[in-house]
Amino acid sequence: MGSRLHGIIAKEFLQLGRDRLALTLMLFVPVAMLFIFGWAINTDVKHVPTAVFEQSGSVEARTLLEALENSQYFDVRHWARSTRDLTRMIDDGTAKVGVVIPPDYARQLARGRAQVQVIVDASDPMVATSAMNAAAALAADRSLQLLAQTTEGVVLKKDEPPLDFRVRAWYNPDLVSAIFIVPGLIGALLMQTTVSVMAIAIVRERERGTLEALIVSPIRRWELLLGKIIPNLLVAYGQMTMALLVAHFVFDVPIRGSLPLLYGLSAVFMWGTLGIGIFVSAASRTVPQAMQLSFMTFLPSIYLSGLLFPIEGMPEGAQYLAHIIPLTYYLRVVRGIVLKGIGIEYLWPTLLPLVVFGAVVFTLSILRFRKQLD
Amino acid sequence: MPSSGRSAPPAPAVHVTDGQDAVVTRGLTKRFGKVVAVDHLDLHVRRGELYGFLGPNGAGKSTTLRMLCGILAPTEGEGRVLDIDLRRDPERVKSVIGYMSQRFSLYDDLTVEENLTFYARVYMVPRAERAPRIQRMLRLGDLGGRERQLAGQLSGGYRQRLALTCALVHGPRLIFLDEPTAGVDPVSRRTFWALVRHLADEGTTIVVTTHYMDEAELCDTLGFIYQGKLIAHGPPARIKAETFARPVIELAAEDPRAAGAALADWDAVEEVVRAGARVRLIVAPGGPGVAAVREYLTARGVALDWVSEVEPTVEDVFVSFVDRERKARVREQLRALGAAER
């Protein structure tokens, strides 16, 4: 028995080692993925081209504009001569933000109640949100009354200065997107390996006719499955370790919680995704089919799990879907442990759906696997 | 004929074991829903025998093999393989037999030696015995010097012998070879069969399926299966003698359809098979020869390119047996009708 299981595991590793391309891809695709998502995807928009209609010509106005520049969110590049001029600049896309400083700005400020109008091109909501938040923070800072206005209409009006209105961002004080996205990518990575690599490992045997020989051999089904699962888990953990190293040392992602807990709970997640992989193998005749099908399971997970976009912003139907996707829960686990440093006492309500999913899907997939061998 | 019909009484509950037999089945039946794939099959394969198991596709050949390998439970009947009960202990059957499929079941990305090591582990060859056993297999399959070559880079004949040695690595006393020579060149086929014959002479029982008559002739015993039943069995010499009494004639005609139609009306011709421009006939014992066939067709205005007598193939042997079975059944029905009239 030990020898048979050992035989399968040894063989899987030999095959893995022989397929240099697949091995390289398995180790470096995760890293490439981290770099692409970690660097390129940035929901925190800086250096927004800004147009200013400055009517006061005062020192105070110049100070305000310097503050805008220094925040790095606004690049003051264009000077408008009239409100119409400003509107045109936003309309033709020269500027995404317009700032209107009234002629009596210095006097208003002296009275302790100044009003500055900020117009934001909200056709790109990410730019708009980013710019409005930055402007609001600045205004609060200098007890300004800020009349923020988007191209869609007035959305924000702070009437009661001087109000000290400060937002404190916990866990990720600088609001760096990479810190949010990179830990989540570990979940996507583990899912891809456990679904597609597992499915391919089984389908390849069937396609080449070697499964036939294994069925006739005295090998037990659980030995065959375990012999495929163990190398797969090791590869997945290897990828995870690599991803954590890059996340920590390249993207400065803090690792606040317990790593053993993270590795342990990841196994619970992979329990279910390995089940999906076995299902995919049962439904595919050929390796390309298995790859396509894995991809199909992968897509909704990426887009609905909250990896890239928050679930709270999704329509109701999509939110329901998000809650039957295991990656959704796993992301909470990874982010919880890595970013917040929380322990099992806070994580068990998230863990429960993962355990249920794992138990159901894995059991069903094994039943399905047994049937396909008969 | 050893086939027990559907109406045969249930087999008595005796032990079908016989120290002389490697494989014994009694009333072995497999039904898939309403389809009867194997129909009350009684099979005897003696120990150390090279047994050719022949039948057209869909005759129940592979279903029988799968039951004998312990991977498919019979619906009815019983069977013993190397004295192990198929129904009670199919898992043990798996570990004492060897099996080689026509797909060869090799890992192309593993070397010759790694393939052998893998199967040795799967079949639980003790660690200490593994290395000498693998060496012996390399010698047996004439694979010396290729230990580190990838299986995927081997040519057909080498792949075939590697597949055979993988099936033999745990030293089974009985091996099943499922069309082991399909798609392999004639020279490799001959080498392979010499190896199989050698194994049988050394005492390994071999059950092999094939489509080639020249291969069937190398067997000690042949069993013909058709529609899930054993319709004939015996040494090839006897089977051949029976078919040689029925010459097989092949001809090419300009209008093969007309030739076929004309011949089908001739009582002395038992079977007419058309394949493209050629027509193949199985002639009744003592029936017409080549000259008579030519004369018959020319008289009916069918233009011929050539006519000649050919070696019977396994299929021809089949057709003649099936035909006889069918005729026997028809005769039986006629007799029953006659009795009713009287």
Descriptive tags:
A: 374 residues; alpha/beta; abc type-2 transporter like fold; 6-stranded mixed β-sheet; 66% helix; B: 342 residues; Rossmann fold; Alpha-Beta Plaits; 2 domains; 4-stranded antiparallel β-sheet; 11 helices; 38% helix; disordered N terminus
Summarize the structure.
Chain A has helices spanning 2-18, 20-40, 59-70, 83-91, 105-110, 125-141, 177-208, 210-216, 221-249, 259-283, 287-304, 316-322, 326-340, 344-373; strands spanning 48-54, 74-79, 97-101, 115-120, 145-150, 153-157.
Could you explain the architecture of this structure?
The complex is a heterodimer of chains A (374) and B (342). In chain A, helix 7 packs parallel to helix 10. Chain A contains 14 helices and 6 strands. Chain A is an alpha/beta fold and 374 residues long. In chain A, helix 3 links the parallel strand 1 and strand 2. The two termini of chain B are 30 Å apart. In chain B, strand 1 and strand 2 form a beta hairpin. In chain B, helix 3 runs parallel beside helix 5. Chain B is an alpha/beta fold and 342 residues long. Chain B folds into 2 domains: 218 residues, Rossmann fold, CATH 3.40.50; 96 residues, Alpha-Beta Plaits, CATH 3.30.70.100. The chains are: A alpha/beta (374), B alpha/beta (342). At the A-B interface, helix 1 and helix 8 of A face helix 2 and helix 3 of B.
Mean pLDDT of chain A: 82
Discrete helix count of chain A: 14
Largest interface: A-B, 23 and 27 residues
List the helices and strands of chain A in order: HHEHEHEHEHEEHHHHHHHH
Arithmetic mean of pLDDT of chain B: 84
Largest sheet of chain B: 6 strands, mixed
The CATH homologous superfamily of the largest domain in chain B is termed: P-loop containing nucleotide triphosphate hydrolases
Q: Judging from the principal axes of the Cα atoms, what is the shape of chain B?
A: globular
Structural class of chain B: alpha/beta
How much helical structure, as a percent, in the residues of chain A? 55-70%
Measured by DSSP, the beta-strand proportion of chain A falls in 5-15%
What is the CATH class of the largest domain in chain B?
Alpha Beta
Q: Fraction of residues of chain B in helices?
A: 25-40%
Oligomer: heterodimer
Instruction: Enumerate the strands of the largest sheet of chain B in spatial order, edge to edge or round the barrel.
Output: 6-7-8-3-9-10
Task: Give the low-pLDDT segments of chain A.
Answer: 152-169
The number of helical runs of chain B is: 11
**Tally of distinct domains of chain B:** 2
SSE run of chain B: EEEHEEHEHHHEHEHEEHEHEEHEH
